[in-house]
TrEMBL record, chains A, B:
<dbReference type="InterPro" id="IPR036390">
    <property type="entry name" value="WH_DNA-bd_sf"/>
</dbReference>
<feature type="domain" description="NrtR DNA-binding winged helix">
    <location>
        <begin position="148"/>
        <end position="207"/>
    </location>
</feature>
<keyword id="KW-0378">Hydrolase</keyword>
<dbReference type="InterPro" id="IPR054105">
    <property type="entry name" value="WHD_NrtR"/>
</dbReference>
<dbReference type="InterPro" id="IPR015797">
    <property type="entry name" value="NUDIX_hydrolase-like_dom_sf"/>
</dbReference>
<protein>
    <submittedName>
        <fullName>8-oxo-dGTP diphosphatase</fullName>
        <ecNumber>3.6.1.55</ecNumber>
    </submittedName>
</protein>
<dbReference type="GO" id="GO:0035539">
    <property type="term" value="F:8-oxo-7,8-dihydrodeoxyguanosine triphosphate pyrophosphatase activity"/>
</dbReference>
<dbReference type="InterPro" id="IPR036388">
    <property type="entry name" value="WH-like_DNA-bd_sf"/>
</dbReference>
<dbReference type="Pfam" id="PF21906">
    <property type="entry name" value="WHD_NrtR"/>
</dbReference>
C-alpha cells in the first residue's frame, strides 16, 4: 500500500496590481486534463532536477512565465482523491508577487491577468487556492513590507500607499500610513532621486536590504 | 518523467505543556530507515482511505498516539531529494495541541514527551519541522485563543495565563493579559463552576463555541 504514490504538483498564484485591482495570472492549459481551460501556472515536481518544491515553483515560473527573482512564499498544500481526475494528488501552492512593469514575458507566454474579483470558474481546486492566496496576502500585507514587492525597485510614498490600499482592500489615512511605514523600518530614500510624475517632485524610496533578505526569494 | 512520483508523507509536531516546558512527543521508529531512533509521529498518505493530508494526520494521530479531537493545523511542506534515504520526498507537516491530562494513550504507545529546548538529534529534517512548529505556535499564540487548546476543557484565568507564558516564552502582566483575553472574546465563564485548587475559589472558564469553530479540528 505504501507504494501507491500520490501525484505531487506545484501551483503558483502569481499576483500583480493593475490600476487599482489586485490580479492573478491565469494560463490556458496546454494538455489534459482540462486542456484549453485557464488555470494557475503550475507543474509536476521533477525529482531529477528540483532541490525542493520551492525550486519547482521557481522553475515553473521561469519556464511558463519568463520570470525570476520574485518574492515567492509557500502558501499551503491542497490534496485529496477528487481534485485531479488523474488520481489522488497533492499540490504544494506558492504565491508570488510581480510588479506590473515586469509582466511582458508573462503576457508573451499567453497568460491573462485577471482581477481577483473576476476569476472565472477554474479547474482542480484552483479557486480555493486563489482565495487562500488572497487571504494570506491581505493578512501579511497589514504588517509587513510584502506589498512593496509589487512595485518597481524605486517608488514614491504615495505609490507605496496605493499598493497597500489595493492589497488591504481599504483606504488608508496618509499620516497614519507614513507612521506605520516608519515603524516597520523597511524602506530607505534613494540618495538624490526624485519622481517628476506629478506637480511636485516626490522623493524616491526602495526596500532596505534587510527587508529583502527577510523573505524567501527565488534563486 | 512525469511518472517518477516522489514519496508523500505526513508528520505531526504534537505539542503539550509539562510544568513550565513546551514539549513535543517523539516516538521511536519501528521500521527502516532510522529504525529505533526517536522521530516525529508520522506516516505515508494512504490513497485508498485518506480524504486529504489533514485526514492522514488525523489517522496517524489516532493509530500511533491514541488521540482524536485535537487542534490540528497545517504547518508547511518540507521536501527534497536528501531528506529521506528512500528517495525524493515531501512531508506535509502539521502541528497539534494536546492538554497534558490527555497524554496517557500517547505514553502507552511508547512516545516520549521532550521539552523543545532538549530535542535530541532527529532523523530526516524533523528538527527543522519542530523549529517551524515552535515559531508558528509562538507567532499565533500571541494573538489568538490557540494556547487554550493546551488546557483541559475548564480552566481558571491564572492557568490560562501560565499557558500563554509558556507558549510565548515570557512573563505576562496579569491585568494586561486579562484585557487582551477580554478583547479576543474567546472564553466564557462556566455557570456556577469554581476551582478550589488554591486558597480562594477561582472561576472556571471554557473556550467559546465560536473560538472552537474558528480552527481546524480533527474529525
Amino acid at each position: 500500500m505504501d507504494e501507491i504514490r500520490p501525484i505531487l504538483t506545484v501551483d503558483v498564484v502569481l499576483f500583480t496590481i493593475r490600476g487599482s485591482d489586485l490580479c492573478v495570472a491565469l494560463q490556458r492549459r496546454d494538455r489534459e486534463p482540462f486542456a484549453g481551460r485557464p488555470a494557475l501556472i503550475g507543474g509536476y515536481v521533477h525529482v531529477d532536477e528540483d532541490a525542493d518544491t520551492l525550486a519547482t515553483a521557481g522553475r515553473v515560473l521561469r519556464d511558463k512565465a519568463g520570470l525570476a527573482g520574485l518574492f515567492l512564499e509557500q502558501l499551503a498544500t491542497f490534496s485529496g482523491p477528487g481534485r485531479d481526475p488523474r488520481g489522488w494528488s497533492a499540490s504544494v501552492a506558492y504565491y508570488a508577487l510581480v510588479p506590473e512593469a515586469r509582466l511582458a514575458p508573462v503576457l508573451e507566454r499567453g497568460s491573462e491577468i485577471v482581477p481577483v474579483e473576476a476569476i472565472p470558474p477554474l479547474p482542480f481546486d484552483h479557486e480555493r487556492i486563489v482565495a487562500a492566496g488572497v487571504r494570506r496576502l491581505r493578512n501579511k500585507g497589514a504588517w509587513s513590507s510584502l506589498p512593496a514587492f509589487l512595485l518597481p525597485e524605486h517608488f514614491t510614498l504615495p505609490q507605496l500607499r496605493e499598493i497597500y490600499e489595493v492589497v488591504l482592500g481599504m483606504a488608508l489615512n496618509d499620516s497614519a500610513f507614513r507612521r506605520k511605514i516608519d515603524e516597520l523600518q523597511v524602506i530607505e530614500p534613494v540618495a538624490g532621486a526624485f519622481s517628476r510624475a506629478s506637480d511636485r517632485p516626490a522623493r524616491l524610496y526602495r526596500l532596505r536590504q534587510e527587508a529583502l533578505q527577510e523573505f524567501n526569494r527565488m534563486v
